Amino acid sequence: MKQLFFTFMLLATLGMQAQTIFGKWENRDEKTNRVDSVIEVYEKDGKAYAKIIEITDENRQNAVCDKCSGKNKNKPILGMNILTGLKKDGDEWSGGKILDPKKGKEYKCFIKLENANKLKIRGYIGFSLLGRTAYWYRKDS
Domains in the chain, ordered, with CATH? Predict the structure, then answer.
């Protein structure tokens, strides 16, 4: 009976962990569907943040954000925080910003878990109707 209870608790815990925005996510190229980077979404002071922890293209390993302005200008993209200050609001996280290091542009954004392994990211200017949606896919451990 103890073993059955332990197994149930382990599966329940794993299921709850999979239902969170936090963890490692793969960003895929929209044209090729190949993974171009791995992003870690983490929590700090009750807010969600994300940083690039892996770049798959060996030629871009040392790339810098040359199109960025301010504190990110010419900083390495690898290790850069690209998602900042999102607060939980129901089933989505909003109120923060996302940085596109390829374009050097920062946008308002919200993110929402579509399912345990798919995260919707909506970046926009002004209203969320004027923007772009991308999806990140949970990285297998």
Answer: 21-138 (2.40.128.520)
